[in-house]
Amino acid sequence: MLPLLSALLPAPMSSVRRKLINCLSAIFGMVSIVPNLALAQSRTTKILRGSSEATQPPASIILRGSSAAQPQTTGTQGEMPNRVTVIYVPPTNPELQKLYTLLRERRALEKIQEILSPFRLPEELTIKTKECGVVNAWYGRQDGEATVTLCYDLLKHILKSLPKKTSPAGVTPADAAVGQFVFTTLHEIGHATFDIFSVPIFGHVEDAADNFATYILLHFGKEQARRLIGGAAWAWRAYLGDYKSNPVVQTRMARFASAHGLPQERFYNLVCLAYGADPVNFPEVKTILPPTRIPECKFEYVRVLDAFRKEIAPHIDKEMASRVLDTNWLSNEQLDPAKK
Hints:
Blueprint: H1 15-28, E1 43-46, E2 61-64, E3 84-88, H2 97-105, H3 108-115, E4 125-130, E5 137-142, E6 145-151, H4 152-160, H5 173-196, H6 205-217, H7 222-240, H8 263-277, H9 297-311, H10 318-325, H11 332-335
Parallel strand pairs: 3-4, 4-6
Antiparallel strand pairs: 1-2, 2-3, 5-6
């Protein structure tokens, strides 16, 4: 869990508005649709449920993973890939309408659906976007169904937090947008998998969900991993400020009681795992982490690797996962904020 355009941006289109729209396009145009990954052709139906969602306008749609042509698997009986359903719930706030429209036009959730298609699930997992009135995302069971909720309000917040230009560390506005969106989504998917597969957790479950998301990002190839990790880290990098010249941070005691780690902790944990996985691809981490933490990063990554292999990997179709990980999900053209 983590703490649009129309009302924020003046007309005619300013350079700021154009930049935000292009960054928004980067979030929702981030995935290249590859024929080899068209294993989960979606079918569209109107959403008709007995829950409160049924009161939404008919523009709400539900997109289910196809059960046709399922690959042969040897997992637990009843587990199948392509069991992720996505739903776009139209907002009532007109300020969020452009975001809702772009999400659907760019097939944002369908692309997340494809990335998650190798997971063999014993039940349907729903990912939906909706207006929440708060900056948030969460996992929970709604009418007994496993559901990840991503708030339009959160996506709007992400756009407002982007760097104005490429950072000294090489994080572009587009990378910051995509990295935060994907990390947030995978964090909540982590909560979902812990619940669905009854994964035992020692320690804070929020830290475990962060580790789950980081582990997956690190497996999308060196270039994509570096850009995704750098973009995800941007969410907390701003809290650090000039940490070398001003290393003292004042905060209220109540913040230490939060289920989530402090932003500074989450940032350090993220980059430490990245360095532990591939110190050659993330050499700058040695200048960020305190010297006493650096030797622990390899052990921390191996611990997450071992947990993933034992608790999660048995529920993943390896052949499908290989195709997903070999795909270039981040095309330069799609992620260039200067592109219209």
